[in-house]
Design a protein that fits this description.
- The complex is a heterodimer of chains A (about 290) and B (about 290).
- With about 290 residues, chain A is an all-alpha fold.
- Chain A contains 13 helices and 2 strands.
- In chain A, helix 8 runs antiparallel to helix 9.
- The longest helix of chain A is centred in the first third of the chain and has 35 residues.
- Chain B contains 14 helices and no strands.
- The chains are: A mainly alpha (about 290), B mainly alpha (about 290).
- At the A-B interface, helix 1, helix 3, helix 4, helix 5 and helix 6 of A face helix 1, helix 4, helix 5, helix 6 and helix 7 of B.
């Protein structure tokens, strides 16, 4: 019994440093942020309680509306390009010789930061002297001056291209892992039964990929909702706040315009969306883990 | 006869299918390599070359090293790189120590309420970083941690602990009880058996944590931007980001910055690549 108590206290002692850091620097700030979202505060004075006014203002704020719409575009495009594209590439890589070379090429940008990715793609998209317009000019034989980054909504799509370049590798690698765990027998059985490639993909491979697909989609959704670095580097959210997403708007309201209360309420909205989406996944993950516990 | 025709037809089909895939992958590969190629090309040019030449022309002189010197000199990259290395070393080491200890405590010593303790720490991965920025900014200003290296190390440690704990917890549950019991019979207490029995076996989870958390710390922009303002504290990505945008530097210098600041993470990924999948498959909540 005394031994048991000793081990229990040792257990608490082991957890203590991690717990203190996380509680003091993450969990308490999280609750404080929730409180600030109900206040008006310019960072210098004392926060004034204003109830739901920040949230009401969000509903009538056209900048917030644009930001919210852009965020939805980012999320939808992420599912379409890096996720679906990653799946396609993973399948194709397994079908051909030399697939590993392609795998390394697509994977490589993952080792590069979002800031660097932003600068690399700014060089591509700049309308004057940018690589993309230069290549198009060469191909078409006339001067091309498409304004990739200054006209909405094209600027958001341009940045999504940069995002796709950086993110497809993650999903590809995860799908490749999922594909290797699928046994050959069911696919062969389907082929013998007369299924063509599409049918065996649709009715055998896709259902068996389900677990990894959940991981990929949950992760891609959460990451695309939080997009910040890339936009901050490439356009700073401009011109005229046309490319802001929720994360960028939150930063701008809080640390450029010092409307801390309002910024806090945007952070809360972003959190609620992310928690609702990832909640489903996290619950699944943990209930699965507990089998070993 | 008919069978042969069918066979031939199938072969043709497969042939066109294969060539479609090759074509698709080739286009993708070109699309992926083009931005990298022009990044190198731009970084190797002097600003006069860049202004006078077509974008695809090779530089008349190899200006990469002059560019590096200028980036370090004008944008104080030496200070920023040093700070970021400190943050990787300090934050990463503290994160590994604390998370490994906490994982051991929660899984192997099983104090009362261990699952709640785990969830409390793990919940740090659920919220987007935006949720912490304003209160941290205020708190750091109040206690004098704003714009200090210690402050940045602490926040990086706290941010990276939850995922690291998740990884270590997954590792500790796989170790058989018998090993621990043997150590206990030999008279080892809880901390002794942690150090002598568990730590030596924790190389794989530590590699996962190192790959993800070091590259995250090196690549962070947001916290560095919000919680610091002077050159000797701001991490490298903040300096790199400040080179872009209006009033920023020339694209040749920016690209030089991109190449040199990518070296640490590329090395990390090359050496620890095989741990990437292990981390990803359990890491939806990772930034």
């Amino acid at each position: 019994m005394r031994e048991r108590t000793k081990y229990m206290w040792a257990g608490y002692l082991c957890v203590l440093p991690a717990l203190v850091l996380v509680v003091v620097l993450l969990l308490i700030p999280m609750l404080q942020n929730l409180y600030y979202s109900f206040t008006s505060w310019d960072c210098i004075g004392v926060p004034q309680w204003i109830g739901l006014d920040n949230y009401k203002e969000l509903l009538n704020d056209s900048n917030f509306f644009v930001s919210f719409r852009n965020t939805v575009i980012w999320v939808a495009a992420t599912l379409l390009l890096p996720v679906l594209g990653g799946l396609l590439i993973a399948i194709f890589i397994r079908e051909i010789k030399g697939g590993n070379i392609f795998k390394s090429i697509i994977f490589f940008p993952l080792a590069i930061s979002f800031v660097s990715t932003g600068i690399i793609w700014m060089n591509m998209f700049t309308s004057n002297g940018g690589v993309l317009n230069g290549l198009l000019s060469l191909a078409l034989g006339e001067e091309v001056t498409i304004r990739w980054l200054t006209e909405a909504p094209r600027n958001t799509y341009s940045m999504i291209a940069a995002w796709t370049w950086q993110q497809t590798g993650t999903n590809m690698v995860l799908f490749l892992m999922g594909l290797t765990t699928i046994p050959r027998d069911p696919v062969e059985a389907a082929t013998i039964d007369g299924a063509n490639k599409w049918q065996s993909f649709r009715y055998v491979t896709v259902p068996m990929l389900q677990p990894i697909t959940t991981v990929v989609i949950a992760q891609a959704l959460v990451n695309s909702f939080k997009t910040f670095d890339l936009i901050y580097v490439i356009t700073r959210g401009g011109p005229y706040r046309s490319t802001e997403t929720l994360a960028v708007t939150m930063y701008r309201e809080s640390f450029t315009m010092f409307r801390m209360g309002y910024g806090a309420s945007i952070a809360v909205v972003l959190s609620v969306i992310i928690i609702v989406i990832s909640g489903f996944y996290v619950r699944r993950q943990i209930s699965k883990d507990q089998l070993y516990y | 006869m008919e069978k042969e025709i069918k066979k031939k037809h199938e072969k043709n089909n497969i042939f066109t299918y294969r060539s479609f895939i090759y074509l698709f992958m080739l286009i993708a590969a070109i699309a992926w390599i083009t931005p990298l190629y022009f990044s190198f090309l731009t970084a190797f040019k002097s600003s006069t070359d860049f202004a006078s030449q077509q974008f695809y022309e090779l530089p008349t002189s190899f200006a990469f090293f002059q560019n590096i010197a200028e980036v370090f000199d004008r944008y104080r990259f030496d200070e920023h790189v040093l700070s970021s290395l400190l943050y990787m070393g300090g934050g990463g080491t503290l994160c590994i120590m604390f998370a490994c200890l906490a994982g051991y405590g929660i899984v192997r010593l099983k104090p009362k309420g261990n699952f709640i303790l785990f969830m409390l720490i793990y919940s740090g991965t659920i919220f987007p970083f935006q949720m912490y920025l304003i209160p941290l900014f205020k708190f750091y200003n109040n206690v004098g941690l704003y714009n200090t290296r210690l402050g940045i190390v602490l926040v990086f440690t706290a941010i990276t602990i939850p995922f690291a704990l998740f990884v270590y917890r997954g590792f500790f549950v796989t170790i058989p009880r018998a090993i621990e019991d043997a150590a206990r019979i030999d008279g080892a207490g809880p901390f002794k058996s942690f150090l002598l029995v568990f730590v030596p076996q924790a190389a794989a989870p530590t590699a996962v944590v190192m790959l993800f958390q070091w590259s995250w710390i090196w690549n962070d922009l947001l916290f560095g931007m919000v919680l610091s303002r002077s050159n000797n504290v701001r991490p490298i990505m903040v300096a790199l980001a400040s080179m872009s945008g209006t009033g920023g530097s020339s694209i040749t210098l920016q690209m030089t910055g991109v190449l040199i600041t990518s070296i640490p993470t590329v090395i990390l990924f090359l050496t620890l690549k095989k741990h990437f999948i292990a981390g990803m498959s359990g890491a939806t909540s990772l930034k």
